[in-house]
Automatic annotation (TrEMBL):
Protein name (record): Lipoprotein
Amino acid sequence: MSREGLCLKVLLPCVATVLSISGCAKDYSMAPSPSGEQVKIAIKVPEELEVTPLRVMYRSAICERVTHDGDGRPEKLEGYNSIDVKLSHQNNESFYEADLFVSGGGLCEWRLSNVLFEVSYRVPNRFGENVGSGGGGGVIVIFDHNDPQLRTSGLMKVKGADLTIIKDYYPWVKDSYSGGYIKRAGLAGEARSYLTYEAREARSVYFEAVLHSDYVVSSTAPKKHKVGEFITFKYPDGTVESDRRSEPNFKKMQEIRLAAEANK
């Protein structure tokens, strides 16, 4: 019997069990139990900032995916399922929350793997007209042994059920000339890309972005790419630096602010 004929004969069992039988499709959907264990994500940001929806990744050891190594040999890895979860306001416009199921259920028995979110300027018009958003602070929390959905450096391993992250950020106004003049306003923080935590036991994640709006760092990129020319940074104390650095010196920003606050 042909493969097509077999699929027709087992159509009803295929629909009922949603299993892969001689080419019939497998159901990769999630079906978490309403009473299942959850991870609470709580995020606090000032009014000037906003939070992206959570990018949540679940993985499955049952529904594997096949990739190939450098020699072309097939290699089985855990399957993945990504969803976006919108955060809700809780009595305060600067406070966001979401609950994530640890077990995503379904025939694949999905398990929570990692979550990613970013904070950035809601409307960066305080820095002038036609100023675009230049990105901001990103956070990744990993709940299992797998790599996160984005590769990062500086992984921090944390134990315990509670993960609390409170970080300082500074306004960063960027002038660039790649493909024409563009001005953007973003955030300068401790991490060059994403703050990344491995917190397998965490069931409560709290993140707070502390924005120091009065301490602005600006940068100007060279109009043309030439050897020996670098981005110029101007710091709140008036100092100007131009070296191989592609992002503001966060340690310097902290020192400038703390010194100014100590003299008040």
